[in-house]
Amino acid sequence: YLEVGVAFSGQVPAEYIRKQTLTGAERYLTPELKEREAIVLNAQQQVVAREAELLKQLCERVAAAAQPVLGSAQAAGEADALQSLAATARELGWTRPAVSEGARTEIVAGRHPLVEAALPEGVFVPNDLVLDPDAEQVVILTGPNMAGKSTYLRQAALITLLAQAGSFVPARAASIGLCDRIFTRVGAHDDLARGMSTFMVEMTETANILNHATRTSLVVFDEVGRGTSTYDGMSIAQAVVEYIHESPRLGCRTLFATHYHELTALAGRLPRVRNQRVEVLEEGETVRFLHRVVPGGADRSYGIHVAALAGLPPAVIARARAVLGELERQRPLEPAAQQLGLPLQVPADPLLTELEELQLDRLSPLEALQKLYELKSRLP
Questions:
Q1: Which of 31, 76, 275, 359 reaches 20 to 30 Å from 188, CA-CA?
Q2: What's the pTM?
């Protein structure tokens, strides 16, 4: 609109159309303004219509060349994947595996690519693996918590997968028999949306493996049966191992990590079961994890040592050691009232008591130094 003061209203051209009267002014429209208003108001609709028209034209052109475009994208993706695998193999010193149609798997100095990348150079400990349905079909892996059992299982599956994908592998040498599938039962989690407990999820995944694995599959079990009572879990774990070993349909390469050390006895009566353990070094009251897999079975899990490393209160650790000792001796547990008492009830360290009672202001510098040497000599 055009706004004109009342003092000039007499000079307004006849073609102006009054739109609004204000105090001291009049507002007018003209045919030209009405035309421009219509153009502005319709501009957004015209923009949307034009965009839709251009998009339709573009889609029609792309659809006409869909197959060449998709083929180019597929080729570019494959080239990128192969180049990435080649660059990784060159940079990290991976080895070309021998892939065969047999069922034997042999890995020399295998490494977990992700764990190795997260550690300082040279820290990761490589390990060997042999799986053969005719001789070493099932490996029962035992060892402490935090020693590297899960890493060992996962690296075996990853190396097998990389080899079958045509990649070099993180190992000094590897001979991989082709697998039709790689099955894994690892970790512990529930499924609240489906109303499934941790143990139910574990059993469902185990059932899927036992029902669908074949002789050429690779199967990885990480602590089957831990989500229920000790005897139930151990019974299920043993039954799973026996089924895989004895079933004519299965007989597949299997890695089975467990804390049920009783299962190591299966190697004595099942000819294709082998025991391996993750080695540790005991140094007094401490344990050092060597992360090295060696033949044989472990007889301890060192769970209390790991609990202490995690920072559990000393009173809890002391009670746990007492309970463990009583269980190992198969004696009834004594009441825990005294052993679970506050830290004030824990016997005080004699050195700390002597230090607290020491009156430093009554000692000369020489006497204080002599006392310090004396206390140091009595440290364990």
A1: 275
A2: 0.68
Nearest to 300 by CA among 319, 335, 318, 327: 327
Longest dimension (CA), the chain: 119
Q: What is the mean pLDDT of the chain?
A: 85
140, β-bridge pairs: 256, 275
Q: Which of the residue ranges 273-277, 279-283, 285-289 would you say has the lowest mean pLDDT?
A: 285-289
How many whole angstroms separate alpha carbon 205 and alpha carbon 211? Answer: 10
For residues 254 and 219, is the Cβ–Cβ distance under 8 A?
yes
- Cα–Cα distance between 72 and 243 in angstroms, integer? 48
127 touches 109 (CB < 8 A): yes
Specify whether the CB–CB gap between 216 and 178 falls below 8 A. Answer: yes
Q: Which domains does the chain have, with CATH numbers?
A: 2-64 (1.10.1420.10), 95-311 (3.40.50.300), 348-377 (no CATH)
Neighbours of 170 (CB within 10 A): 27
If you write DSSP's letter for every residue of 363-375 in order, what string do you get?
S-HHHHHHHHHHH
Six token digits for residue 102: 């047999």
User: Counting every residue, how long is the chain?
Assistant: 380
pLDDT digits (tens, 9 = 90+) for 297-334: 887 777 888 888 888 898 998 888 888 888 777 654 44
Kindly state the tokens that stand for 159: 């190396």
pLDDT digits (tens, 9 = 90+) for 62-73: 888 888 889 999
CA proximity to 308, closest of 125, 190, 146, 152: 146
